[in-house]
Write a structure and sequence with these properties.
Elements: H1 2-10, H2 30-41, H3 43-48, H4 52-67, E1 72-76, H5 78-95, E2 102-106, H6 124-134, E3 141-145, H7 152-163, E4 167-172, H8 178-182, E5 185-188, H9 203-222, H10 239-253, H11 257-266, H12 271-280, H13 284-293, H14 298-301
Parallel strand pairs: 1-2, 1-3, 3-4, 4-5
């Protein structure tokens, strides 16, 4: 009986539908199949466009959470969970943030990053436990990611976040999703049937990745983590990033090589501090102090 109800529910979801125009993809040449798949993928950005007001609202709420010391917590199962963890892991090197500021939580724990964990997406109690382990508070924002918008683990996480008065956002790929109805902000990106019916790692996964990109990037821009489109809070943790830091400082200041090197050495490689030093003629300590007074805004300091 329960299985019948679930089948009936899934039958209503566009993410589970089959596109009859693709019924012959196993018969056409590979190049033709690739062209059709590429054409399907091109529809994803267009599907996101109607959701941009919700994306912008969510990004502003996340930036406000960061300003008060709160966190962004992604929650998902399977591919959506992995996408949340991926986006969270990219924030420290890109924006110089503490690893605890953007967190990815995946049903089944770390092992689920590389291996399917049977039943993890249905474990509602685990979602409550996982958020409790983080010490979730009203200062945080929880973004539940689910292609179907009905994943029990994600729905339970959104309910628990609401119980704790945290801001809740849902990212799903069906109109009027269950997750969207629960969350404060619903981002329902309707990408339509997949190239392989029901394989939501495809267009739905691409849509979720693009939305995650926007949420963190726009929130970080609002929090002065960039100067224009330059990542001036980049953390130079390898040779490529060290070279990028040098180029960023020189690009913004126009200073000669020797002065750029000296400034970066004086401020332990902090790009934003080095730029403030070179363009205002102050020491590293004074530059850091002025940046702190300006809430980290390099533009305000300059």
């Amino acid at each position: 009986m329960a299985h019948d109800a679930l089948r009936d529910e899934l039958a209503t979801l566009t993410t589970e539908a089959a596109d009859a125009a693709l019924d012959d993809i196993d018969l056409v040449p590979t190049l033709e199949a690739a062209r059709r798949m590429n054409a399907a993928d091109r529809s994803v950005p267009a599907a996101i466009e109607p959701c941009l007001p919700a994306v912008a609202e969510a990004a502003d709420r996340i930036a406000a959470a960061f300003a008060r010391g709160g966190r962004l917590v992604y929650v998902g199962a399977g591919t959506p969970g992995r996408l949340g963890v991926l986006d969270a892991s990219e924030c420290p090197p890109t924006f110089g943030t503490d690893p605890s500021q953007v967190v990815g939580v995946i049903a089944g724990g770390d092992v689920a990053l590389t291996t399917a964990v049977e039943g993890a997406e249905d474990d509602e109690a685990a979602a409550v436990h996982d958020l409790d382990a983080l010490g979730l508070t009203a200062d945080d924002v929880v973004v539940g990611i689910s292609a179907s918008g009905r994943t029990p683990y994600v729905l339970a996480a959104i309910r628990e976040a609401r119980r704790r008065s945290a801001t809740t956002v849902s990212v799903a790929c069906n109109a009027g999703s269950a997750a969207g109805r629960l969350a404060d902000i619903a981002i329902d990106v309707v990408v339509g049937p997949e190239f392989i019916a029901g394989s939501t790692r495809l267009k739905a996964g691409t849509a979720q990745k693009l939305v995650c990109n926007m949420l963190t990037t726009l929130a970080m821009v609002r929090r002065h983590k960039t100067y224009g489109n330059r990542m001036v809070d980049v953390r130079a943790t390898n040779e490529k990033l060290v070279a990028r830091a040098f180029s960023l400082v020189q690009d913004v200041t126009g200073a000669p090589d020797a002065e750029v090197s000296a400034a970066l050495e004086a401020c332990d490689g902090e790009v934003k501090t080095a730029i403030a030093m070179l363009l205002t003629g102050v020491s590293a300590d004074v530059a850091r102090s002025r940046l702190a007074e300006a809430d980290g805004s390099l533009r305000a300091v300059l």
